[in-house]
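Problem statement: downstream parser choked on a complex file, so we are re-checking the raw output for the 4'-deoxy-4'-aminopyridoxal-5'-phosphate run. The parser issue turned out to be on our end (a line-ending mismatch), but while we're here, posting the original submission so the record is complete.
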Amino acid sequence: MDTRDGFIETIGNTPLIRMRAVSEATGCEILGKAEFLNPGGSIKDRAAWWMIREAENSGLLRPGNTVVEGTAGNTGIGIAHICNARGYSCVIYMPDNQSREKIEILETLGAEVRVVPTVPYTNEMNYQKQAGRYAQSLEGAVWLNQFDNTANRLAHYESTGPEIWRQTEGSVDAFVCSVGTGGTIAGVSRYLKQQRQDIQLVLLDCIGSALYSFITTGEVVMSKGTSITEGIGNSRITDNLAGAKIDWALQVTDQDMVTMVYQLLREEGWLLGSSTGINVCGAVEVARKLGPGHTIVTMLCDGGGKYRSSLFNKDWLAEKGLHLS
Ligand code: PMP
């Protein structure tokens, strides 16, 4: 029999999918790692499990305890699933600029969701800091701290990276990825660079984030403007991202991202989220720079169903000054 044992064993080993239109347009193989097929629906199931497993193994987390986390939503969804599967309570702090659907899913999963005003990391009322303080105040609570807990990047070093290497039979020339905590790019890039020294590792950044500036100039300066993307961009270098060997960085605008997610939907049948739009746009740009004949891998981070009231709502998009081409 070919079966997987429960929720935990269903995490990872996602397919690597050839993105047809963009591969044909560039003459490269543009391959997307189908993280939206994880059982909690996103790339963050891997980090959620690695962090919870580490807390269990270190004796910090015991049956009946409470897991607390600050998250844009997807990490929280992964955590809430795993808490149910392993008998923990779950409290999630989220900023109020994330999609309504993510909050609803978390509530359906039985998490206690605390939506707090969106303020910068430097403000003590930032959702991450509130999560940390709450966990400290509650007996039997564990704060997973996905931004600075390096069990997050270890998930991608031990699972996503080796899967990509195996699935491409070592033919991957470039890995291209947007960044939130940095866990994905740091873990995958470290593994792939150990297999092949001359692989190109490219960080993609949305507008209003400081990571493009960090990779290109070494200075952590936020770019001007804002972005409707969810789960990516950062104003600081997390412990997960620190030390990652990234070769170059590109910025992708929201308009290019919107055009791409609708192209993927209408021409190929994929309903995928905004960070995936950024990733496929970036993969196309890297394919054009490298020229035909290269294999470029990126991440299909989550599905688009959670963004029906935002990214896939034309009136909402128009309010943000974004249009469908
Ligand atoms: N895309 C989506 C949809 C996400 O939720 C996240 C995580 N916040 C990312 C991309 C970025 O992944 P990482 O945190 O590993 O950098």
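For whoever reads this later: Residues 44-143 form a domain with the Rossmann fold fold (CATH 3.40.50.1100).
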